[in-house]
Amino acid sequence: MELSVSSTSPALLKLNHHFLSKNYLPIKIPSLHFANDKKLPSFYRQTKRPSFLRKFASPASSSIAVGPSNDRLPADIKVTETQEPNSRVRLSVEVPPAVCEDCYKRVMSEFTKQAKVPGFRPGKDVPESILLSYVGKQNVQKATVESILKRTLPHAMSSVTGRALRDSVQIATKFTDMEKTYLSLNSLRYDVVVDVAPEVIWIPENGYRDLKIVVEIDSEIDAQRASEQELRQRHKSLGSMRIITDRGLQVINILIYSPSLLLLLVKVYLTLHGMIQDINKRVYAISSKCNTREKNLYQIGDVAVLDVSATKIDKDESNVQNIPAAESKGFHFDTELCDRVIPGFLDSIIGIQRGETKSFPLVFPESWKQENLRGVHAQFTVECKELFYRDLPELDDSFADKLLPGCTTLQQVKESLLQKFLEVEQTAREQATDNAILDQLCKMVEIDIPQSLFEEQGRQLYGAKLLQIQANMKLNEQQLASLSSPKAVNEFLENQKENITRVIKQNLAVGDIFKRENLQFSTEDLVKEVENSIAEFKRHKQEYNEERVEEQVQEVLEGAKVLEWLREHSEIQYISR
C-alpha cells in the first residue's frame, strides 16, 4: 500500500487532533541515550510531540539533563563546541579528576546508606574495602560514571541553552569506553551531540516584504460554471436512460454567441441526424445554460457503457506493456464530461455502436495527473457494451424542491447553487493564495535542517496519513503493524524527502516572519480556539493533553496571522489554468 502526501496543503494551518490525543503518546524513553544502545522504534518515539516548532530545551529540562545545572562542581570541566552539518553541535567534554573523585565519594556514601552489609548496622560507616567487596567493584564503577554524567552534563549543555532541540540530545561516546577512561585515568571524557534551532537565512534579506505572487486558479472552481454543471447533474438525476439501437455514439459541440441561433442550429442538427425523439429534451437542456453576454461552448451527447484496455508501446512497437491504470470494465462514460478522460478519447469513439470494438493510439499529455503516465504512447482498445440517451423532464418551478430541498422556484435553485459555489470559489482562491505564498517563501530561505526535525515532521505526516487510512479502511492488526514498521516509515521518509523538507522550510520561514514583524494575536482568540479544540476531543470521546493543545493552537494562530500579513503586503496576480 502506497502512502503519499499532498505537497500543496500548508501543514502549519492544520490542527491534528490525533497527535494531541493521549491515545497516541508513546512509552516514556530512558533518560540517557548512548551510542549503539537500543532505542524504542523511532516512529513511536518521535510522534510524541505534535507541535512542529518544538520548544527549546534548557539544560534542566532536556530529557538527557538529569541533574540540576546549579549543582556546584569542585572543579571546572572543559567543553569544546564543534559545529556539524544539519544544525548539529558536538560538545567534547573533559571532566578533571577532582570532579570524578567527588562523584565517587557521593556514590560510596549512597551505597553505605542503602546497602545492608552483614555485621554492620544500616547507615553506619563501612570500611571502603568491605563495601567494595559487598557491592562489587564493577557496580561501583558503573554508578560512578553515571553520577559523573548526571552532574556534569547540565554544565556541558549550558553553552547551547535556548538553542538545543528537546529530545535530540545523545551521548555519542560508548559507555564502555567511558568506563575504561575512568578506570585508567581517574578522569572522564565524552562527546555529546545535539540538534540546535536552525538559522533562517533570507535571500534576499527581508525579501518576504516585497513578494510578487502569481496564483493559478483552476478553471473548474469558477463559481458560475460550477453552479451550472451542478444544476445540470441534478437535472440528469431526475431523468431516465433510454437505450439506443438504431445509431452510433453521437455528440454535438457548438461554439456560438447567439442563444436563439444556437437553439435553432441544435434542432436542425438533431433532425438531420435522426435524433428527433430527443429534440425537445436536448434543446431545453442547453437553453437554461445559455449566457447572452459571452460566447458559449455546448456539448450534448450520449452515455456509453465501455470496456477499456490500454497498452504502452515504444516508438519501435517492440515492447508492449499493459497499463492497469487505464483499464476499466463496464465504464459508464458520459460524453458531456469528456474533459475527465485523456484528450482524443471521445473523438476516437464517435460513431461506435453497441457490440462494436475500436482500437486507436493516444498520447498522455504532460499535464496528466498520474506522473508515471505523462508522455506515454498508448494503444487503446474500446468495446461498446451499451448506448443510452437521456430522457430529461423540462425544468420548471415544480421541480425546485427536488433539485434543492427547501427551494420553491427554479430561480431560487440557481441562486442558491451559485451562492454555494461562490463560497467554495472564495475558499479555493484563499487556499491557492496561501499555497503560492508558502511556495515562494520556501524558495527564498536557506535552512540547514536538523535530522531530528526532519524525522519528526515526516513521522507526523506519515502518522496522520496512517490514521486517515485506518479511518477509511479499518485496517486489521496485521496490516496496521506492517504499515507501522520501521521499514515502512523509513521508506516514506525517503520517498517524501522533498515534500517534508518543503513543509519544514515553510513552517520555519513563517515562524521567523512572526518574530521579525512583531506580530501578535489576541489572548481571547487563543482561549477560544483552545476551548473549541478541547470540545472537539470531548465530542469524539478522546483524551487530550491541554498543554499540547495550546501549543499547537498557538502555532496555528501565528501561521494565520503571518499569511494575513503577507497577503496585505504582497503583489498578487490571479490567472486561470
UniProtKB/TrEMBL annotation:
The keyword 4Fe-4S does not apply. It comes from Populus deltoides. The lineage of its organism: Eukaryota, Viridiplantae, Streptophyta, Embryophyta, Tracheophyta. The keyword Chaperone applies. InterPro entries: PPIase_dom_sf (IPR046357), Trig_fac (IPR005215), Trigger_fac_C (IPR008880), Trigger_fac_C_sf (IPR037041), Trigger_fac_ribosome-bd_bac (IPR008881), Trigger_fac_ribosome-bd_sf (IPR036611), Trigger_fact/SurA_dom_sf (IPR027304). Its EC number is 5.2.1.8. This is peptidylprolyl isomerase. Residues 527-554 form a coiled coil. HAMAP family: Trigger_factor_Tig. Signal peptide: none annotated.
